[in-house]
Amino acid sequence: MIDQPYAKLVAVKRWADRGLYDAVSQNFDRLSSEESSIMLRILDHIHVVDRIFQHHLQGLSHPFQAPRSESMPRLQALANSARKVDDWYAEYVDSLTESDFEQPVDFVFTSGKPARMRRGEIILHVCLHGTYHRGNAGAVLQLKGLRPSRDAITDFLEDCVPDNL
User: Fold this and answer.
1) How far apart are CA 13 and CA 16, in angstroms?
2) Is 26 in contact with 75 (CB distance < 8 Å)?
3) Dihedrals φ, ψ of 96, to 5°?
4) d(CA 38, CA 136)
5) Is the four-CA dihedral 124, 101, 105, 69 of positive or negative sign?
6) Which helix or strand (DSSP H or E) is residue 12 part of?
7) Confidence bin at 153 (pLDDT 50/70/90)
C-alpha cells in the first residue's frame, strides 16, 4: 500500500534508482574511463548496502566483507540486480504490519561491530543512503555536462502519483 510512509519511501527509491540506471546507461559511453569507474563504484556501493540490509532484514548472513563488491560488476548486471532488490524491498515493506517496523533486528556491520536497528530504521537507512549516493552519481553526470535523472520525492509525486492533491 503506497500510502504507508515506508512504502512511499521505497517506491521513491525504486523509481529514482531506475531513473538513474536509465540515465547512466544512456550516457555511459560518454564518460571517461575514470568517470565510468567512479560511477560503477557508486552504483555498486548503493546496491551492496541494499543487499546487506536485505539479508539483515531476512535474518540471513551475507557474502560481503565490505560495503562494495570484491570485483566490479558490469553496468547491465548491476542494473538488473538492483531492479530485483528494489522490487524485493517494495514487496517486503508491503508485507509488514505497522508494529513490524518497530521490531529490532540484531546484526553485525561489515566492520565486525554488532548492531541493532528497528526494521523501520533499516528501511529508512536504505532509502536515505541511496538518495545520498544517487546525488554523487548525478554530480558525475553533471560535471560531464549530462543530465541526471529526476530524483526528488516531489518529482516522484508529480510523475507517479495520480491526483496528488
Assistant:
1) 5
2) no
3) -90, 150
4) 10
5) negative
6) helix 5-27
7) confident
How many other CB atoms are found less than 10 A from the CB of residue 78?
20
Cα–Cα distance, 139 to 133 (Å, whole number): 10
Distance CA 118, CA 72 (A): 31
The grid coordinates listed for 6 are: 515506508
Residue 164 banded pLDDT, cuts 50, 70, 90: low
For residue 46, give the nearest of 135, 117, 152, 115 by alpha carbon.
Answer: 135
Domain boundaries, the chain: 5-160
User: Would you say the pTM of this structure is higher than 0.70?
Assistant: yes
| pLDDT at residue 78 tops 60 | yes
Superfamily of domain 5-160: dinb family like domain (1.20.120.450)
Radius of gyration from C-alpha coordinates of the chain: 16
Q: What is the pLDDT of residue 29?
A: 96
Determine the Cα–Cα distance for residues 81 and 83; give it in Å rounded to an integer. Answer: 5
Q: Which residue has the cell 491526483?
A: 163
Q: Is 141 exposed, middle or buried (0-12, 13-18, 19+ CB in 10 A)?
A: buried
What's the CA gap between 113 and 58, in Å, rounded? 19
Cβ–Cβ < 8 Å for 143, 109: no
